[in-house]
Amino acid sequence: MSRLFSDREGDDGLPGADRRLAVVALTLATLMSVIDVTMINIALPTMARDLGITDSRAVWITNIFQVVCAAMLLVCAAASELLSRRKVYVSGIAIFTLAAMGSALAPNFETLLVCRALQGLGAAATLSIGPSLYRSIFPSRLLGSALGLSALVVAIGYAVGPSIGGVILSVADWPWLFVLYLPLGIISLIMAWRALPSEPRREGSFDALGALASIAMLCGVFMAMEAIGQQAPGLEILGWLALTLTAGSAFVIRQQRAAYPLLPLSLFREPRFSLAVGTQGASFIGQGLAVVALSFFYQQEMGFSALHTAWLFTPWPLTIMFVGPVSGRLADRFNPSLVASAGLALLMMGLFSLAMLPNDASVLDSMWRTALCGLGFGLFQPPNNRELMSSVPKERSASASGVMSTTRTVGQSLGVAIVGLCLAAGAGVQLALWVGAFTTALALLISLTRIRRAGEAQQVQRATRKAEASSEAP
């Protein structure tokens, strides 16, 4: 860990001391956003009872956060290029923290929903540009290790979120879940303001029409996936899909004509970037699908309680916590696409093994399979993120980061929708697990096609750094 904050002659990025403060800010902001969903989900039954609403309405306490966050990811990434990433990131922390306090004090369900929507906006501002800030903060030689640290933070958030929620609810009412964000938000805000690098604003205008089309498109995607997952009527699903296709077409046309597009489509002309995005999307479909499908399988097929189900999931994020930082270091030393492909192979084997899990399997028999999935996913994610971010010029880092966050969100939502389709068809959740395994196999095939390109790019980057160091030497 100490080498992440060591300085070397010729390094880009921030000095070691400033790097530490910036990482604290990024870590706390990421934890708040990741913990939110897992922690609040635990409290939904209690919140429904206290607010006098049905369980189906209470689900929107989580849904509204996710919808707004997903819809605003690309918009916030584009705004950061115009206003600076530092300002957008700090504003996101402030909005999230203030909205959390509003949620804690909300007198009724409607006010709570408004505050949760604002929290989603704040989360979008931080999550959309977080990976690009790691690229600005850390030297290029440590980018993989830095993104491994980011994967570690996310895994910790997923692992501890339900436990934190359970502990707080055992001694206090649900508003205290939101009060928790106040000290974390204040510390993160101060650190971010002091340590995040300042940068000049981009000249030009903001693509407002593109932003509206993007919001409509991503809202349509998320709502369509939610409708499929909830087995909504066919007309409702078709309506959301129609909105998605119409807004998506308008978005692409607008991006081709705008002087300053919200998302430069030229990014996708770089094969390394496009392949990394495709690999990420397919892998997150499998990951999102597995998490939901296993929840049903453990409780409905194997007869475990909700608490036991949460414990059965634990090996997945715990393994990522240990493997993620190691995977990032491997990506700095070796071909990142090769490391990522090895991780996808392990994830695929883990999902196939879970699809074959018998109903009467023991706890240990289940846990080694989820641990194998965590091992594979932890080995895959940091190298793939490194490849995605390093394949574009630094001035396009915010756009690449927004695409990364959006692809992750849409992939997970599509995975949940596939589980809903399997349940609606009466096919069972094990079929969904098979679909997840084959989707991960598709991600592996995409990843294997880019190994040569990634290796050549890494050699060029190393040669460039050596030449720059030699020219600066006395």
Keywords:
18 helices, 474 residues, Growth Hormone, Chain: A, mainly alpha, 3 domains
The count of DSSP E runs of length 2 or more, i.e. the number of strands, is 0
Q: Helical residue percent?
A: over 70%
CATH topology of the largest domain: Growth Hormone, Chain: A
**Mass-distribution shape:** globular
CATH architecture of the largest domain: Up-down Bundle
Please tally the helical runs, counting DSSP H or I stretches of 4 or more residues.
18
* Main sheet characteristics: none
Question: Which homologous superfamily in CATH is the superfamily of the largest domain?
Answer: MFS general substrate transporter like domains
Percent of residues in beta strands? Answer: under 5%
Query: How many distinct domains?
Result: 3
Determine Rg (CA atoms, Å).
Answer: 22 Å
For the termini, the CA-CA separation is 31 Å
Spans of 5+ residues with little confidence (pLDDT < 50)? none
Roughly what is the average pLDDT, rounded to an integer? 83
CATH class of the largest domain: Mainly Alpha
Q: How would you characterize this protein structure?
A:
- It is a single chain.
- The chain is mainly α and 474 residues long.
- It contains 18 helices and no strands.
- Helix 3 crosses helix 5.
- The longest helix is centred in the first third of the chain and has 36 residues.
- The radius of gyration is 22 Å and the shape is globular.
Please describe the topology of this protein:
Blueprint: H1 16-51, H2 55-58, H3 60-83, H4 85-105, H5 109-137, H6 143-171, H7 175-179, H8 181-195, H9 208-229, H10 234-257, H11 271-301, H12 306-313, H13 315-333, H14 336-355, H15 363-390, H16 397-424, H17 429-448, H18 451-472
